[in-house]
Amino acid sequence: MELIYEKSVPGRRGVKLPASDVPSASALPEGLLRTEPAGLAEISELDLVRHFTNLSRRNFSVDTNFYPLGSCTMKYNAKVLENTAALFAPFHPMTALLPGGEEFCQGSLGMLYDLGQMLADITGMDEVTSQPLAGAHGEMTGILLISAYHRAKGNRKKYVLVPDSSHGTNPASATIAGYEVITVPTAPYGDMDMELFRQAMNDEVAAVMMTCPNTLGLFNPHIKEISDIAHSFDALMYYDGANLNAIMGKVKPGDVGFDVVHVNLHKTFGTPHGGGGPGSGPVGVKKALIPFLPQPRIVMDDDGVLSLETFRPGSIGRAANFFGNFGIMVRAYAYIIMLGREGLIRVSEQAVLNANYIMERLKPFYDLPYDQTCMHECVFSASRQLAHGVHAIDIAKFLIDRGFHPPTVYFPLIVKEAIMIEPTETESKAAMDAFIEVMIEAARTAGSDPQALLDAPLTMPVSRLDETKAARELNVCCLV
Amino acid sequence: MNDSHYCPHTEEEIREMLSVVGASSVEELFAPIPPELRAKTFNIPPGMSEFETFARMQDIVADNGAAMVNFIGGGFYDHIIPAVVDHLSGRAEFYTAYTPYQPECSQGTLQALFEYQTAICRLTGLDVSNASLYDGATACAEAAMMALRATGRNRIVVDGCVSPFSRQVLKTYLYNQDVEVVEITPLDGLLNRAALAAVLDGRVAAVLVQNPNFFGGIEDLSPLASQIHAAGALLVASVYPVSLGLIRSPGEMGVDIAVGDGQSLGNPLSFGGPSFGFIAAKKSLIRNMPGRIVGETIDKNGKRGFVLTLQAREQHIKRHKATSNICSNQGLCALRGLIFLSSVGKEGLADLARLNWDKAEYAKARLAGIPGVTVLQSAPTFNEFTLFLPGPAAPIVTELLKQGIAAGVPLGDYYEDSVNTLVVTVTEKRTKKEIDRLADALQAELECGHI
Lengths: 480, 451
Fold this sequence. Notes:
CATH superfamily of the largest domain in chain A: Type I PLP-dependent aspartate aminotransferase-like (Major domain)
Number of domains of chain B: 3
Number of strands of chain A: 12
Shape of chain B: globular
Helix content of chain A: 25-40%
Number of helices of chain A: 15
Oligomer: heterodimer
Strand content of chain B: 5-15%
CATH class of the largest domain in chain B: Alpha Beta
Number of domains of chain A: 3
CATH architecture of the largest domain in chain A: 3-Layer(aba) Sandwich
CATH class of the largest domain in chain A: Alpha Beta
Largest sheet of chain B: 7 strands, mixed
Strand order of the largest sheet of chain B: 2-8-7-6-5-3-4
């Protein structure tokens, strides 16, 4: 499809701007004036609408296809959430920071405060900051909070421990927050190796970052013991909330020893993924870390009036411009009050049931390196198919031709040819059965006609793309 | 009966699935969680229908009262949003997709992001852009870290005219790094160039400025660029994208990395987010650029297509050695930015910027006509400018809020000795009538002696 710039015609105009009702001002000095207008599109509104509508049709999405992308929780995004977010569109964030401005933001601040309280209840924390703009941003914020805690206590800490099954963002965030990363291998039973963990722990460890259930979809039964060991070295426990969808109402990270959590609203709380964001990564902490939370912090007085605490010595400062991805928080808030207590519990139960159902049905056809009851996702290996020269990526491309977005492949890194499947609770049995049938067909085709998998996909606007050329020639924008 | 939202199974289906799994109940699947660790309380209130939910949200938003007539900015700006932006970004094929890891079934998102990157490069006059960052403030911090990586130095010089929020975010990002942040106190609302010269040495990785700056002032950065490059440092500029319809591009001014907040490009105020951050740079810096990048390539049949490229820099591959920790960015907001820029178009963006400038110049003259009120800047401003009032700005702002006017941002909280200072923002959305109303209300407040 042509680029929008290739459809441009010099002199063509799009939307009509408001007419000026003030006198025209004298020109800016020469050195400041733009010499040439930026080469933006010059396209009629109808052509623009067709361009983006047709682009959108070149995407798989939750609303068009089953999208079992492991670790991403691609659940249905309720339409009413979009309507609720629009209600808040005209409110300027600076209003709250003006003297006397909080009075005119009680609805927005109140929603943030209540959302924080509900997230604190779900995760077993004492207070939540809404500022972090995505999961990884939450991780960075959380590790900085831990660092502030250690600094205040005069602790000398150097390391953050992560299991080798962790999301790549965990070690990357720990590095940005100023720590060296120690990676602890996974034991054959699928959890962080307890013996190696004990050996790795020392007084210089600032934090242990865990995802629980982990990226293999397994709940670590030793999690309390791990927390106790970490705490005995005054290391804090960080909970990566990417997999919270599995455990709502069942277990609270705060109850099993975690001190800091981030929550991915775009995963667990039904807000759209937006083709790569915006997400939202609020961070919850236990009491001991409240003094270090970023500013501004929303506080409620005895009469229920909300205000902003804009300065507190000891705070890590500011993680983002204002109050975080507010529009995403509106959606998540609406989601939580709509589903309610029983609804959220049911979400986790059905997410776990669905993952186990798919795992059980596909077990005869694919290797399952960690064969135990899983939580919200399961991880297969295409190692059996590899014998026929078929890789996980080939199975993924075959699925595309059959109308399914592929599962996550090649993650976690500890599973060879990993195929990570997370159906979520919103999929029907029929949708999952159809997916299972195609996965079985892929496994059979790997044996009978491997070339068919290697050639896929054939039904998309493009066939397999040359990623090496993209990286070598690096054309990342169309210059004039 | 199953009356749960969005969990479709009937009891019969659940029974069938349990029998396949070999469990007698769903609860049995949670057996891996030791009983003593199970949640003892769960206090979320009972759920409700979507209709009741929406009504509840309407009640909450009503607690805000009516939205203000905005003469405030501070990083977020009240601009027009063409109707196509909501409608096209509201296509579920865009907003219910995720990061385009599988390019063949994600060409819509990938091509749109490539077009977005192109728009950002053309707007900033620079060579390369990524697929978006979180917001303008974090983009400043990412640009600083990019300069640290690229130069191997450990000092960042920041102009005090940069948004105090961006400066705070920068310090938070560098909280635990062995990096020194040197701030330069503004001089008459502009960068103090003598003070910069005094600190510009071989340790400086980058100088971060904002243009237009937090006070609204704009300046030609070209002489600054030569001075900074001579010291082997990079010039990072945070820019306001709408202003680039009128003001010379950062690329032309010699800027190495341009960043900014994309909120003004088709994203609603929405109490501060979501918006997006953009980052563009000279080509030589691309391998140090954070976040996702979309690149053009061809498929097996030679047909053009787009992929996420340079992924070997990223966290999911490089882990602790990654260029940044970014995974989710603000893709949908960037898409809104692209649709906005494409709808307004090449000539339209120049007109829009001009409209902002004309309105702000009118407001500046009108407000400066109030006895006792003067304008800080003798240098040009874009759509924001700074007033000196005859007394403290804060009580006046408080009073005008009660009249439904957000009159400006008092600087007392952000700069020493600035209690009488007010930054006023005027976008194309403010009518002459609203500007006159602001002037009359401000004059009345000053005359009735609230200060």
